[in-house]
Design a protein that fits this description.
Layout (H helix, E strand, L loop, with lengths): L5 H38 L7 H35 L1 E3 L6 H14 L5 E5 L6 E4 L7 E5 H6 L2 H16 L2 H28 L11 H42 L2 H13 L9 H4 L24 H8 L3
Parallel strand pairs: 2-4
Antiparallel strand pairs: 1-2, 3-4
Helix pairs in contact: 1-2, 1-6, 1-7, 2-6, 3-5, 5-7, 5-8, 6-7, 8-10
Length: 311
């Protein structure tokens, strides 16, 4: 894979990322509209409202629910991530080497020093988190601190710092929230159909096939939003690798670090798949991913290394 230049890669990734995020609400509201089309068709006697009227009647409620969900998830994400990864603050006196490396990269990038957390695990991995300068954090596993040399660890820190600089974490959190909202609403529609909250007495023998179609639509919608989220994550990893090479001027150090990480990336405490995608290498992703990597949260490390070696 040929490296096309940092600025070109930045432009491509940012444009594609914006397009992907626009698709999330489009899929959400599109599914609701299709639901009303199927519901109207399945009534058989015309008693159910037409699709436009039905959609407009629930649009304000869905929008309000999405906003409330988004606010709660946005404000609580830091505590959720720390709990899901088992990370805790690393004191400066406990490891001055790490703090010196983080400070050096932050100064090179012209950024405020982020907080530093440690994950007590001998495996090699790291991730960045936070949505503002007050919450920006770089978390490193015990293994990656102890098993990488200074140049390699600095490159990993620069990779995570680039995620912060490019607002990647914020973007990924937004995508995760949208997928969660989508899953919640589609499940609510299914439950309403099942228990008669939608349709009432107008439900008849034709509603059975409609319910099956709704289930199929929910599955398709979940699949699409999940693929969007994975594509967003993969694109951001390439960009962070390029940013790390730019900050450290040592792309081969990051390539070397990625080789070591690929040999032992599994953090035992990480069980949530949405949180796992934030790491420099997904700690729970299986090596063999089908359909040309569509279901992978990260691009293959071999491809990432190949690009870095072209610098």
């Amino acid at each position: 894979m040929k490296y096309v230049g940092l600025q070109t890669q930045v432009w491509r990734n940012n444009v594609n990322s914006v397009l992907l995020l626009i698709l999330f609400p489009l899929v959400l509201f599109g599914l609701v509209f299709v639901f009303f089309i199927i519901w109207n068709t399945s009534s058989g006697d015309g008693t159910n409202p037409d699709p436009v009227t039905g959609f407009l009647s629930v649009f304000p409620w869905i929008t309000a629910g999405v906003i409330i969900w988004f606010i709660i998830a946005w404000l609580s994400h830091t505590a959720m991530i720390q709990k899901a990864t088992g990370s805790r603050p690393l004191e400066r006196k406990a490891n001055k080497r790490v703090y010196n490396l983080v400070e050096n990269v932050a100064m090179t990038a012209g950024m405020k020093m982020p907080a530093v957390n440690i994950i007590e695990d001998d495996s090699l991995n790291a991730f960045a988190s936070g949505i503002s300068s007050k919450t920006y954090t770089i978390s490193l596993s015990r293994g990656i601190i102890e098993r990488l040399d200074d140049d390699e660890l600095e490159a990993v820190i620069a990779h995570e710092m680039t995620h912060i600089r490019n607002r990647d974490v914020r973007l990924l959190i937004i995508s995760i929230i949208f997928v969660g909202i989508f899953a919640f609403i589609t499940e609510g529609l299914l439950r309403s159909l099942r228990f008669g909250a939608i349709g009432g007495r107008s439900r008849n023998k034709n509603s059975g096939p409609a319910i099956i179609i709704i289930i199929a639509l929910a599955g398709i919608g979940w699949l699409l939003t999940t693929l969007f989220r994975f594509a967003l994550s993969r694109k951001r990893e390439y960009l962070a690798d390029a940013g790390a090479a730019e900050l450290t001027r040592k792309p081969h150090s990051l390539a070397s670090a990625l080789r070591k990480v690929s040999g032992d990336p599994v953090i035992e405490a990480v069980k949530r798949k949405d949180v796992a995608q934030m790491f420099i290498e997904n700690p729970g992703e299986k090596k063999k991913v089908s359909l040309a990597g569509l279901f992978a949260t990260h691009p293959p490390i071999s491809k990432r290394i190949s690009i870095l070696e072209q610098f």
